[in-house]
Write a structure and sequence with these properties.
This is L-rhamnose isomerase/sugar isomerase. The protein has 387 residues and is of the alpha/beta class. It is 45% helix and 11% strand. It has 14 helices and ten strands. Strands 1-2-3-4-6-8-9-10 form an eight-stranded parallel β-sheet. A two-stranded antiparallel sheet has the order 5-7. The chain is globular and about 60 Å long. The protein starts with a helix and ends in an 11-residue tail after the last helix. Bound molecules: D-allose and zinc ion (2 copies). One zinc ion binds next to loops.
């Protein structure tokens, strides 16, 4: 079914999983605790290792500081390696402390800005200790009411704070700036869209790149166009994959709109994002509030793989030919043919050939791992989204 090149790309596909997906999470109404949830970053890595062992798709784990602070990061790295994993992106956090009520890197008060900068410098230390090359910055900065603060001055302060952080990165480290159009601020956010993120990145330098979280746009936004444009400009640093019906729902990627995921993957392919040497990081940013967490992560990486596989099935020559002839319906048919192709059996065959289970979710259920963690992880405080 697949070309040799498509098989190569699928075999090499790597999706980064977030440490916080394994902890308890919920909405502002209720956090439903689940049995066997990790109590510390070591156990989060152990759970992530299950996802990789059963799918071959998830070799790295993103950490979140301070939620994943440990005394000895060298030990955590050893632990990751012993599980066949490596530490990926380090995510900063300037949204849970009281001092950040009115912002962090864009705050009017220089002391608060300095505290937020210092937190990022700590994240850079963690990057050095773990070998991580990406510092991901998502800011809750913004305002709730017109006139609340000077939006222009906030941009200037943000640019200055980001530059101070950027200067401290090593030559092989990147600053990855995520945008979000609302929440927790409701009137304006200081990095609301890809254009604002891109502008700051260009001002910072070559190693500043944009993170596109698929849940961070107004309904109806053509996200794949943004993918195209950022790849064209050489500034698509990372994805935070998830899916949404309404707002930043953080549901499993590909659950709400698999066709959108397919269209995104086509543009990634078109823009060279799957080529050797591409440094686009494909990360999940999800919370499994009601579904089981490890199977939820397995389902998610498989969804990404399935839509990637379908995108790689597009007959590029036929598509270019139809497009060149102005054959509107013909081009759309070539595109849709690939989308409607069921690749699940072919991917299961490929997994089997690689020594992986045909059905990773069934293999997880049969493995006894869930019963084991539910038995072993009693006592202590179970990690939640935020701990
Ligand atoms: C927030 O909405 C963003 O998606 C962040 O990327 C992320 O969810 C948060 O930093 C948790 O780590
Ligand atoms: Zn995100
Ligand atoms: Zn988000």
């Amino acid at each position: 079914m697949f070309s040799t090149q498509a098989i190569e790309r699928l075999d090499q596909q790597a999706i980064e999983v977030p440490s916080w997906a394994y902890g308890n999470s919920g909405t502002r109404f209720k956090v439903f605790a689940q049995a066997g949830v990790p109590r510390d970053p070591y156990e989060k890595l152990a759970d992530a290792a299950q996802v990789h062992a059963l799918t071959g798709l998830a070799p790295s784990v993103a950490l979140h500081i301070p939620w994943d602070e440990v005394d000895d990061f060298a030990r955590l790295v050893d632990h990751a390696e012993s599980l066949g994993l490596r530490i990926g992106t380090i995510n900063s956090n300037t949204f849970q402390d009281d001092i950040y009520k009115l912002g962090s890197l864009a705050h009017a008060d220089a002391d608060v800005r300095q505290a937020a900068i210092d937190h990022h410098l700590r994240c850079i230390e963690v990057m050095h200790a773990t070998g991580s090359t990406d510092l991901k910055i998502w800011l809750a900065d913004g305002t709730n009411y017109p006139g609340q603060d000077d939006m222009r001055a906030r941009q200037d302060r943000l640019a200055e704070s980001l530059a101070t952080i950027y200067e401290r990165l090593a030559d092989d480290q990147r600053l990855v700036l995520e945008y979000k159009f609302f929440e927790p601020a409701f009137y304006h956010t200081d990095v609301p869209d890809w254009g604002t993120s891109y502008t700051h990145c260009v001002e910072l330098g070559e190693r500043a790149v944009v993170c596109l979280d698929t849940g961070h746009h107004a309904p109806g936004t053509n996200i794949e166009f943004i993918v195209t444009q950022l790849l064209r400009l050489g500034r698509l640093g990372a994805f935070d994959f998830n899916s949404r019906f309404y707002a930043d729902d953080d549901l499993m990627v590909g659950a709400a709109d698999p066709f959108q995921l397919f269209r995104i993957m086509h543009e990634v392919n078109r823009g060279g994002g799957f080529e050797a040497g591409s440094d686009v990081v494909f990360m999940l940013d999800q919370c499994h509030n009601i579904e089981a967490k490890i199977p939820g992560q397995i389902r998610s990486v498989l969804n990404v793989q399935e839509m990637t596989a379908r995108a790689l099935l597009i007959d590029q020559d036929a598509l270019a030919d139809a497009q060149g002839r102005g054959d509107v319906l013909g081009a759309n048919e070539v595109f849709m043919d690939a989308f409607y192709t069921d690749v699940r059996t072919a991917l299961a065959d490929r997994r089997e050939a690689r020594g992986l289970p045909r059905d990773p979710i069934a293999a997880y259920a049969a493995s006894g791992y869930q019963a084991e963690i539910e038995r072993a992880r009693v006592g202590g405080t179970q990690a939640g989204w935020g701990a």
